[in-house]
Specification:
Elements: E1 3-9, E2 24-27, H1 36-48, E3 53-56, E4 67-72, E5 75-80, H2 83-94, E6 98-99, E7 101-103, E8 116-117, E9 122-123, H3 130-148, H4 150-153, E10 158-160, H5 175-192, E11 198-203, H6 208-221, E12 228-234, E13 240-242, E14 245-247, H7 253-268, E15 278-284, H8 297-309, E16 316-319, E17 343-344, E18 348-349, H9 351-365, E19 368-372, E20 376-380, E21 386-392, E22 402-409, E23 414-422, H10 429-435, H11 444-453, E24 457-464, E25 469-476, E26 480-488, H12 499-503
Helix pairs in contact: 3-5, 6-7, 8-9, 10-11
Length: about 500
């Protein structure tokens, strides 16, 4: 028998729940935004979920063609080309997105060294001339303000670099050199307009505590009124690589949340920075773009739990990434390859896509949270109905099913219950792809079939309140995510219409 958990929900209770699910989404390098598949995937994500900001690498990489040098009368001069930048920004704005600007990486001609990262060779060395770097940043911001309006662009957060605590992303992981980059960039941005919001240090795990403490100490020592702090959040142990793919084991969710709390505690230990916003500008289960967990229902259920608590001490948390048009380790061989994205090649939503869609539904409801634990979150809507999400991540091989029985305080009358279920049986395009023989190149028919298999299972029923409560049962199989809505709903039939007679055998 499945484990059963019974919960009585008080309509007047208050539970702490900060839902910032739609603040920002991650993307591969900016130059990929010029491709058709990228744009199609992002349009799907925006239509079904709808994020506010988008953040990615490569703003100043050479494929964006912004920075140029030429020689005139023996003097080196600089010019800028914003053709591709404008195309990308225009597209983002057309789908309702504002950039969360990550300033990086280094244009080759401006770079001090030759170190690069990824298949697309982003240069990760400091500038050979900080003055020229700062002028490039300022020119970019002035161009954007001229094109889109100062009041608009001032709403775009600015982050200086990406993961400088890793030597691959910042030469030698040189902390003091990064602090110089941040300081000079911060001053340059504020010189354009002091209302810009600028933050860092965009560190990943491992040395995050050391770097964040040192960063705050540097800001204090130099009187930098940093606007926010950024860090990343991944929740796996060391991957096991086989061929093109990484197999991972999830770390304890509680250990991950505890690690995030250390950042909050460190920042709040500096009186002048207490309460400073923290933006998690990347998060996912795995930090590798060929980690097979990303395509699974386990990923969806684990992330559902994460989304219930990531807002506890953080202003935002940006899932890495919206889609699988992504080339850090080369062009993927197959549509399902463990890519970071919510959407697979062919505009096929993965299970985690719906986790975000469900949480966005909670956002749209503007309901008040009346119950939250490690299995479910419940909101009471302004019209008296209820909306919530339950999840059941099961990493082991055991078939651990559970049932959550909710007793919801409700006035007398008739109600409707709508559930949308994503689990290994009802919404699992990965399994369908496997059953089709794991084709590397999808036919139109296969693509359509996978899109159909990638939708939640919808179920409805009618309920009557009893003794001031409506009771609903959420059956959750392995790795399920279930979104439910309870709504007051009286039947108002047309003259002569009798549903009982319609469906009866008579």
């Amino acid at each position: 028998m499945p484990e059963e958990k019974r919960i009585a929900v008080d309509r007047n209770a208050e539970a702490f729940f900060e839902n910032h699910v739609d603040f920002c989404i991650g993307t591969g390098r900016m130059g990929l935004a010029l491709t058709q598949e990228y744009q199609e995937q992002l349009k799907l994500v925006q239509a079904e979920i709808g994020f506010q900001h988008i953040r990615g690498h490569g703003l100043f990489c050479d494929d964006m063609a912004i920075y140029h040098e030429y020689e005139e009368n023996g003097v080196r001069k600089v010019e800028y080309n914003y053709t591709y930048l404008d195309r990308v920004m225009d597209f983002y704005r057309s789908v309702g997105l504002r950039p969360f600007l990550e300033l990086g990486f280094m244009p080759e001609k401006l770079a001090r060294g030759t170190q690069t990262i990824f298949y697309w060779k982003g240069n990760t060395t400091p500038p050979r001339d900080y003055g020229v770097w700062c002028e490039m940043v300022q020119s970019l911001l002035r161009h954007l303000m001229s094109r889109y309006g100062a009041q608009e662009v001032l709403t775009w957060p600015i982050e200086v670099w990406n993961e400088p605590n890793l030597c691959g992303f910042w030469e030698n992981a040189d902390m003091q050199e990064y602090f110089r980059l941040f300081h000079e960039t911060f001053d340059a941005v504020k010189a354009v307009d002091s209302r810009f919001r600028v933050g860092g240090p965009a560190v990943c795990g491992g040395t995050d505590e050391i770097w964040i403490r040192a960063f705050m100490e540097y800001c204090r020592e130099h009187g930098i009124a940093v606007d926010f702090v950024t860090r990343h959040h991944y929740t796996i142990e060391q991957p096991d690589r086989a061929g093109h793919y990484d197999y991972v084991k999830l770390m304890s969710a509680e250990d991950g949340f505890a690690n995030l709390r250390t950042s909050r505690d460190i920042i709040d230990s500096f009186e002048e920075y207490r309460g400073l916003p923290i933006h998690i500008t990347e998060f996912n289960t795995s930090y590798t773009p060929k980690s097979v967990i990303h395509d699974t229902n386990l990923n969806a259920a684990f992330i559902a739990h994460q989304l219930s608590r990531l807002g506890d001490g953080n202003a935002s948390y940006s899932y890495w990434t919206f889609g699988d048009v992504f080339e850090e380790q080369g062009v993927p061989f197959t549509p399902f390859h463990g890519g970071f994205g919510l959407v697979a090649d062919g505009c096929i939503p993965k299970p985690t896509f719906w986790t975000f869609a469900f949480y966005k539904k909670l956002r749209r409801s503007e309901g008040a949270c009346v119950y939250k634990d490690d299995d479910v979150v419940v909101l009471r809507k302004q019209d008296g109905g209820y909306l919530g999400i339950g999840w059941n991540p099961v990493e082991s091989g055991a078939g651990e099913e559970k049932r959550i029985v909710l007793s919801l305080a409700a006035d007398a009358g008739a109600y409707s219950l709508l559930t949308e279920t994503v689990d290994e049986e009802t919404c699992n395009p990965l399994k369908v792809w496997h059953d089709l023989g794991e084709p590397a190149d999808l036919t139109d028919g296969q693509k359509k079939l996978l899109q159909q298999a990638a939708k939640p299972f919808v179920r409805t029923c009618r309920l009557e309140s009893a003794d001031g409560h409506v009771e609903i049962t959420l059956p959750m199989r392995r790795n399920a995510v279930v979104c439910f809505e309870v709504q007051r709903c009286d039947v108002e039939s047309d003259r002569g219409y009798d549903y009982g007679r319609v469906v009866s055998a008579e």
